[in-house]
Predict the 3D structure of the following.
Amino acid sequence: MIEIDNKTKFQPDEALLLKIASKYTKKNIELIVTDNAEIQKLNKAYRGIDKATDVLSFPYEKMKNAPLGTIVISVDKVEEVAENLGHTPDEEFTLLFIHGLLHLLGYDHEVDNGEMRREEEKLIRALALPNSLIVRSEEV
């Protein structure tokens, strides 16, 4: 189950997100949909970075019956990136959800040997989505 705390007017495709999540886990996931101002506060408080970001992931302790964790997505970033790259906000939101989910599952593209990138690519091909965060950052 995905518990959504939506603080915006954007309506994510809950059925698609649940379909994606259920491929990887039966644990509950909290999804917070917010704006740049709130995600900037969280980014500063938890990562020491005083700027807005697109997605944050907060995995929970691995305990029986505990939720997997929380994913926070900034709709401001979703809309900005979608417009700049020429795809839909729904596609960008889904990409960010996938990215956040993989982090909750323990993947870390900053230190792994491409495992997270390969897993993202497998999913985005299956869903016919545009390039993922990792692929875009490697193209720059």
Notes: The first helix runs from residue 14 to 22. The chain has one domain: 2-135. The chain has a mean pLDDT of 90.
